[in-house]
Amino acid sequence: MGLSEPFKTSLRRQAFAFLCSTVAVACAAANAQPAPAEAAPSSDEPAPFETLEAAMARVEALPGWRTASARLKMCGTCHSFDENVQKPMGPNLHSVFGRARGKSEFPNYSDDYAALEGVWDYEALDALLLEPRSVSQRSLMSGQPPVRDEEVRQAMIEYLKALQSSSN
């Protein structure tokens, strides 16, 4: 079943608007001061009782954070990071770390995603970001560009883990 022309047009407009905002973010990031190095190593478990502010300070200190923040803005085209907002194009990414794969309240999972086993842990998210087509050939995610830089993937995953701190 294909997408309707009005829907495709809407997607193209959203993609163009997003591209424009991404270019603006990239230009701003190029002029920003570098973030301090030496962040705590990643683990599969969020720090217990870590505040959102402490979690974000830890994430923003990661070497790949500037590029990761621009890539996360791309994710925001289809996904929401706010626990109270659901976009129609993709599942909410708030508290995605540790959640069962393909099993959230999002009603529009592709068959590939709905059939996934396990949880979104560090390894699963890393694999998805490195090669979106490895998870599904038939979802909108399969058309996303891979995140080849390991530091950027780590910063993106640490950000997703940090969002859980706002739920504690």
Keywords:
6 helices; 168 residues; mainly alpha; 0% strand
Average pLDDT, all residues: 77
Q: Would you identify the regions where 5 or more consecutive residues have pLDDT less than 50?
A: 15-42
Rg over C-alpha atoms, rounded to the nearest angstrom: 16 Å
| Topology pattern, helix = H, strand = E | HHHHHH
Q: Approximately how much helix is present in the residues?
A: 40-55%
Shape: globular
Percent of residues in beta strands: under 5%
Total of DSSP H or I helical runs spanning 4+ residues: 6
Structural class: mainly alpha
How many strand elements?
Answer: 0
What is the CA-CA span between the terminal residues? 41 Å
- Report the biggest beta sheet as strand number plus sense, adding barrel if it closes: none
Written overview of the protein:
The chain is mostly helical and 168 residues long. The protein has helices at 5-31, 52-60, 65-75, 111-114, 122-130, 150-163. 23% of the residues are buried.
Short description:
The chain has helices at residues 5-31, 52-60, 65-75, 111-114, 122-130, 150-163.
